[in-house]
Write a structure and sequence with these properties.
This protein is an alpha/beta fold. Helix content is 50%, strand content 11%.
Length: 342
């Protein structure tokens, strides 16, 4: 146990969590999840993937402590009208990994908790592992010490020693950038397969296991029928400060998802938590009513609808850290740090 966690246990024992929750202002806490581990994804990217058992413990805690879990639309309406119940929270999930259907949806249904799923649509149509993530996973998974680079990309040749972290990362990103900028999706799949073969990683298990893949459109349709609120997350998981690209990403995202869910989509999650107020007029003209960031904190009635705060939960977050966030004690710590930094 590290010093931070030990300190949080002491603060909880002293009653500071309970005190923070009592004096916390009325607001809306938004929780953020991504994927749910089917294989070893939580070891590969603990911030991105959470074990189903850990998620189950989170839901059990929310239920036991009687935190009111509300839908996104309902929560935002009550936030603006100052009519939220104490401790109200929204559960959101980003991207649309297949594991949401397999792992998270049944747990949410058993807990009778509403949730919002922000879906990036490109890979829902392609039905293949996310190329960037697959390449990163292959480099992480291999036990080989070197990689022969000939014929992987035009710019690479020779051999790279994988125990040289800097060189390994450089080569990995060279492969990713080449695949994303120069190849079609089928060519990217072929490149990932060849890379996996050279590094003795089973690419077919990645492909068939679908733990780095998103749900198909038919699977999203089934999820929507069971009450999951599907919303916008751009088409290609990018939203730069360029108006034409912002409009294209939102328009294409809607074109794919709205026929699936049968309703207008008006809520957005910024890809990778990268956002700028510069895009707000463009999003407003596109009838986007709210947008969530990955900046932690409690949303108050004065929080901009296009700059909503969220707590990013994952396997890297201990249960005591989650409880500290839900109690509002983390907000107190953030305020103290902010005061000292000023």
């Amino acid at each position: 146990m590290n010093v931070k966690k030990f300190g949080l246990y002491i603060c909880k024992w002293l009653g500071l969590f309970r005190l923070s929750h009592y004096f916390e202002p009325s607001g809306l806490r938004i929780l953020c999840y991504h994927g749910f581990a089917i294989a070893d994804e939580s070891d590969f990217r603990p911030k991105l993937f959470i074990l189903p058992d850990t998620f189950k413990k989170r839901l059990a805690y929310l239920s036991k402590k009687r935190f009111p879990i509300v839908g996104l639309e309902d929560g935002l309406q009550k936030l603006r009208s100052n009519s939220l119940p104490k401790g109200a929270a929204v559960i959101t999930i980003d991207d649309g990994f297949y594991s949401v259907l397999q792992c998270a949806a049944p747990l949410l249904q058993n807990a009778s908790f509403p949730s919002t799923l922000y879906v990036t649509s490109y890979y829902c149509q392609k039905e293949s592992p996310i190329f960037r993530l697959a390449v990163q996973y292959i480099f992480w998974k291999t036990s080989d010490n070197q990689l022969e680079l000939t014929n992987l990309t035009p710019a690479l040749s020779g051999t790279v020693q994988l125990n040289d972290a800097a060189e390994s990362q450089r080569v990995m990103w060279e492969i990713i950038n080449y695949g994303e900028s120069q190849l079609s999706e089928s060519e990217r799949i072929d490149l990932a397969r060849r890379l996996a073969a050279r590094l003795h990683v089973n690419y077919e298990s990645i492909f068939e296991g679908r733990y780095l893949s998103l749900m198909t459109l038919s699977e999203l349709r089934e999820l929507a029928k069971h009450g999951i609120d599907i919303q916008l997350h751009t088409h290609r998981h990018k939203l730069p400060d360029e108006e034409n690209v912002v409009r294209q990403e939102i328009t294409e995202n809607r074109a794919v998802l709205e026929p699936v869910v049968g309703k207008p989509l008006q809520h957005l999650c910024y890809p990778s938590g990268i956002w700028s107020e510069k895009s707000w007029p463009w999003l407003t003209s596109l009838q986007v009513k709210s947008a969530t960031t990955c900046d932690p904190g409690l949303n108050l009635s004065t929080t901009p609808a296009l700059g909503l705060k969220r707590f990013l939960d994952g396997e890297n977050i201990a249960q005591i850290e989650f409880e500290s966030e839900m109690s509002g004690f983390n907000d107190l710590l953030r305020a103290v740090r902010s005061a000292f930094s000023r």
